[in-house]
């Protein structure tokens, strides 16, 4: 389930944090949706093709958008300054770009080849940053080709898929540090597949979809810090506690002990059982007697049932195994059905004495 963060909760999570959004106009839109969670009064102002700073002094939160529409040497130099220079590293880095490369180079295959070379050169730098910071690479959303302007007609979904495949393959190919990989953010692509038809220009997502992407990004980072009750979508799986481990061992031993004792008991019963009677030369039918059950076997059998019940409840509580959905309580949804039932009860009641008199008269 996804938790809907309020601005106060977002500030508590991101206090004293520096977040950087690095990329093109699509990343800029995500940047605005993200800072609106912190400050809902913010307006989309400033140079569209330039850097945009944001700072919340009450919580010492700094969020910057850096205009790098292409994965090239300039983007590599900026990332390198965080890994090797004296510049302070951001706590969260959100990056992504591709559509400008498709547009400027008219969708040529040479541009895709150069994109692969450039992203290969920055992949080690991003992985190095991922050791101490949270690094997210945003996959490119699909476009609505029918609504694209003539200057953007070369941006096709086929080209975007090729760029996304290259990014995923290169960023996930390194095994030098498997615990600190760059996180590929693909949920935006899935949302865009359903909502891109509502786009105003065929390239940029509608505001509702951008806000959802920003909220998911907030959940990915903050759920493990804030641990909201209804925010189970992005929390890491909690480790087993000592009590859970002891209970697991106890119930496992109980199940094993029950089967062993039951098997031994039934084998002894079969050996002592006589199935034939040769006194008259006729085969005697075996008497139907069930083996007596010992107290220990009954106790272990009860523990086995309890263990299965506890395992069922444990599995049902695992959000990473079974999907959950958000459920909201409202006074109207609770009281209207109750009032409806009470009204029906008032109008559809009869005196029991009168009913009994009618029944006896019929009989």
UniProtKB/TrEMBL annotation:
Taxonomic lineage is: Eukaryota, Metazoa, Chordata, Craniata, Vertebrata
A single GO BP: carbohydrate metabolic process
Record keywords, A-Z: Glycoprotein, Membrane, Transferase, Transmembrane, Transmembrane helix
Protein family per UniProt: Belongs to the PC-esterase family. CASD1 subfamily.
Q: How does it sit in the membrane?
A: Multi-pass membrane protein
Does Cytoplasm count among this protein's keywords? no
Q: Where in the cell is it found?
A: Membrane
Per UniProt, what is one GO molecular function of this protein? Answer: transferase activity
According to the entry, every stretch annotated as the Cas1p 10 TM acyl transferase domain falls at 226-355
Against InterPro entries, the record matches this protein to: Cas1_AcylTrans_dom (IPR012419)
Q: What Gene Ontology cellular-component terms does the record carry?
A: Golgi apparatus; membrane
> Which residue ranges traverse the bilayer?
246-264, 298-316, 328-348
Record bears the keyword Glycoprotein: yes
Name of protein: CAS1 domain containing 1
In which organism is this protein found? Gallus gallus
